[in-house]
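Fold this sequence, please.
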Amino acid sequence: MDTSPPFTPAKRRVHRKRHVGAGSPTPTPPVALVLVSAGYVDVDGTLTLGFDRAIDISGLAGNQITVDDQPLGVRWVASGAATLISPMTVRIEMIEDGGIPDGDDVLMNASAASGIVAVDDSGTWGGATNLLVPFP
């Protein structure tokens, strides 16, 4: 007669497969900066830009931002010194860049290559085309 103890199968262990990249969340893409204000002072040749969140101006390419002061008949380029006057606001000294035809408006143009980026996620500012200043 067989005296061995009865056979009891071992409990199965469940092995879950790990997905490639598991544990590292997909990075959130940067959100574009939004311009919330723009002001220009012809007396001292400055442009002040305000954004919806904190900005970094270390890569500012001022030659990508211009102001056409039609009443004065002058085009200005934002190639002067730039100063953060708050985490979300920059004041840029403008340099006169020649004459333009007279008109009634002050218009700002800025390309997406202005170099102004968000501090939190490096989101960029898309720029502006013929934005009436002051804005809003």
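The mean pLDDT is 90. The two ends are 98 Å apart (CA to CA).
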